[in-house]
Amino acid sequence: MDLLQIAEQLRKALQMYAQTLTEEQALEVASIYPAWEPNRAYKIGDIISYGTNSTGDPQLYKVVQEHTSQADWIPGVGTESLYDAFGLDESGYPVWSQPTGAHDAYNKGDIVNYNGTLYVSLI
């Protein structure tokens, strides 16, 4: 087995392990997550990267609906029913993202950063 094959196996092992991390842990090793790609089957809970966040790190998304990706269904605005963006600001608070259903709704007392201001959910 050559060095390239060993490196590829190590990359696959890291990506399998990475799927077991919490969102907070995932953010610490964001670069090991696979990049989003079209024509790929994604299942609920998969974590992928697409683009960069406000701190220059890979932007991570959790798949919230099983699907096969399409070139016009990229993670971000308009595909919130497929991908849930997540991240933390420099102070460790979650960056606000528009909830799309019960799976990502904020709970009473949750604190989020929205455009540089911290908000506490009242409901």
What do these coordinates show?
By secondary structure, the chain is of the alpha+beta class. Helices cover 18% and strands 23% of the residues. It is built from two helices and seven strands. It has helices at 3-18, 23-28; strands at 41-42, 47-52, 58-63, 67-68, 83-86, 111-114, 117-120. The strands form three sheets. Strands 2-3-5 form a three-stranded antiparallel sheet. It has a two-stranded antiparallel sheet with strand order 1-4. Strands 6-7 form a two-stranded antiparallel ribbon. Strand 6 (111-114) and strand 7 (117-120) form a beta hairpin. The longest helix has 16 residues, at 3-18. The radius of gyration is 16 Å and the shape is globular. The N and C termini lie far apart (57 Å). The mean pLDDT is 86.
Annotation keywords:
123 residues, alpha+beta, 3-stranded antiparallel sheet, two-stranded antiparallel sheet, 2 helices, 18% helix, globular
In brief, what are we looking at here?
Helix content is 18%, strand content 23%. It is of the alpha+beta class. A hairpin with a 2-residue loop joins strand 6 (111-114) and strand 7.
